Amino acid sequence: MATVSVCMIAKNEDNHIEECLKRLRPCKFEVIVVDTGSVDRTVEIAQRYADKVFHFAWCDDFSAARNFSIQQASNDWVLIIDCDEYLENVNLAELEEILDDNSRSVGMIVRNNPYIIQGVRSIMSERIGRLFNRRYCHYEGSVHEQVCTLDGSEPDSFHIPLTFYHEGYVSESDKRMRATRNLEMLLHDLTLKGPSPYIYFQLGQNYISLNDLEKAAHYYQKGLELNADPHSAFVQSMAETYGYCLVDLAKYDLAMALHDKYELFSHRADFVYLMGMIYMKKGIYDKALEEFKKATSLTAYSRKGVNSYRANYNIAAIYENMGELNEARTYYKKCGNYEPAVKKLKELAVSPAPKPVLASSVQGK
């Protein structure tokens, strides 16, 4: 793959960068690492694996650093990854074949993000734009930077056969420090550029990191009020995470208003599952059953389980609560080895009608 250069920026990533670079080696990509001020072993490790290592004086602008890394590449096609993203799957032959037909479009990788729900490790998958031709695209935005076209037009996108696992672990103190830093930069961008769905979305994300659901919901709501493109991945995520914030805040009546956007987002199991959660919290069990069952029929999703074991668990719990134990057992069995369902089946075998524990909402990111 001599036609693609991998461009990375790094700062104090010696706990991630070696694994990241080692997984890239079989692909024969050109690898560019730009260090923005590390004081650990990041540069030393990068020099062992990367083709080129550069230094960039940090200026509180992620796009400036990204664009500098892109300028150092030998190829026009550039793939942008972070140090805590590890290659899982790739089809190099297919990738090379589709580049020629998409020179002005942005390639969407799959990124798998781990998270914990009800004590069980799960995966949220997302598609994000990371591969593009630098003759037509670059980065804009000082924080949570976006790929934009040089001429200001809206770029098309295409799926590429690349999957990364996002390690993403940082301590709570580091998470809060990063979120606080990013908030300052985002608010500065908001002042300079005015209202933006994407900036509002990222503000919400940062307040999630700071465990401030009230402010997160506030900014998600402002972003959704701007009527951004509902086909955009970040807009879909914003609608769903906004709903989960409202559920966690017990603002169920406000969450019900998301039904007004049902036609826009109900092609995704995540949104349909969310509506099921809202109906369930409101005690409207017939509608909740309808939504959870519909979620199991959909194939588009991000959070693992929303169209399978988690939806089936809630269906079973509702049936159990209604005293329909045969139906409850049927749907608990559909959850496979999902531990809460296995536990409920054992309880039902001993006691005919234990009080159910309805699945809690997911803190989406």
Question: What does this molecule look like?
Answer:
This protein is an alpha/beta fold and about 375 residues long. The protein folds into two domains: about 5-165, Spore Coat Polysaccharide Biosynthesis Protein SpsA, Chain A (Alpha-Beta Complex); about 175-350, Alpha Horseshoe (Serine Threonine Protein Phosphatase 5, Tetratricopeptide repeat), CATH 1.25.40. The chain is about 45% helix and about 20% strand. The strands form two sheets. An eight-stranded mixed β-sheet has the order 3-2-1-4-7-6-10-5, sandwiched between helices. A two-stranded antiparallel ribbon has the order 8-9. Strand 2, helix 2 and strand 3 form a beta-alpha-beta unit. The longest helix has 22 residues, at about 170-195. Mean pLDDT is about 90; it is low at about 360-365.
Element order: H for helix, E for strand: EHEHEHEEHEEEEEHHHHHHHHHHH
Contiguous runs where pLDDT drops below 50 for at least 5 residues: 360-365
Query: Which oligomeric state applies?
Result: single chain
Name the CATH class of the largest domain: Mainly Alpha
Tell me the number of helical segments per DSSP (H or I, 4 or more residues long).
15
- Beta-strand portion reads 15-25%
CATH topology of the largest domain: Serine Threonine Protein Phosphatase 5, Tetratricopeptide repeat
Name the CATH superfamily assignment of the largest domain: Tetratricopeptide repeat domain
Please tell me how large the radius of gyration is: 22 Å
CATH architecture type of the largest domain: Alpha Horseshoe
What would you call the structural class?
alpha/beta
Summed up, the domain count is: 2
β-strand number: 10
